[in-house]
Structure formats: C-alpha cells, structure tokens
Design a protein that fits this description.
The chain is of the alpha+beta class and 107 residues long. The protein is built from three helices and five strands. The strands form two sheets. A three-stranded mixed beta sheet has the order 2-5-4, covered by helices on one side. A two-stranded antiparallel ribbon has the order 1-3.
Length: 107
C-alpha cells in the first residue's frame, strides 16, 4: 500500500499472467480497457474507443487460436458494440500508420 508503506501478500492466479507463453489470451474479471490493452499487445494494433466505456462490466474469456477478427466479433456480440478496422491512409511522409481498430460503443 503506497499510502501506508505496508506490503500485503495476496494469492494470484498465475495462469492469466503466463497464458501468453502458450499462445493463449486469458481475461478473468477484466474491464474492457484491460481486455483491449491485452489485445493491443498480443496483436500489435491500436484500439480507439469512440464513446464512454463502462468499466464496471467485466469480461471472462480464454482465446487459444482465434484471430483478432474472431475475438473482436465475439466481444462485440457479448458487449454490444460495433467495431471495424480503420482506414489505412498514408500519413505525412507516406508512412502507413499502425493497424488501428475503431470500437464504437452503443449507449
């Protein structure tokens, strides 16, 4: 605890943290923000959310060999949002930007 300077020992489920070494993406009671950060790291994309994220909703899923499109389709059906790959127009200097995904939240 930073406020008190005390250390606290808690049990941790290591499976969620090391699953990537086995080609898995695991989320347990994770917010959409946490899930999207994991997807960004795993697939080398940038996820841009248009709208307000409800971080009180949590997600529980294990993905083994699914593509990014399959995962986004699954999440969009369960969480009720739309998504698409962003247009990849060359930026200044003719360099293509990273792969971007746009998530449109439906309120």
């Amino acid at each position: 605890d930073k406020a008190t300077g005390r250390l606290e020992k808690k049990p941790v489920n290591t499976y969620e943290h090391i699953a990537w070494t086995q080609g898995r993406l695991v989320s347990r009671n994770a917010s959409f923000g946490d899930v999207s950060k994991s997807l960004e790291r795993q697939f080398g994309v940038r996820i841009n959310v248009q709208g307000k994220i409800n971080d009180t909703e949590t997600y529980r899923a294990t993905f083994r060999n699914e593509s990014l499109s399959q995962i986004m389709d699954y999440l969009s059906r369960t969480a009720g949002f739309g998504w698409a790959y962003a247009d990849r127009a060359p930026s200044v200097g003719g360099v293509l930007p990273e792969n971007d995904i746009v998530v449109t939240l439906q309120n």
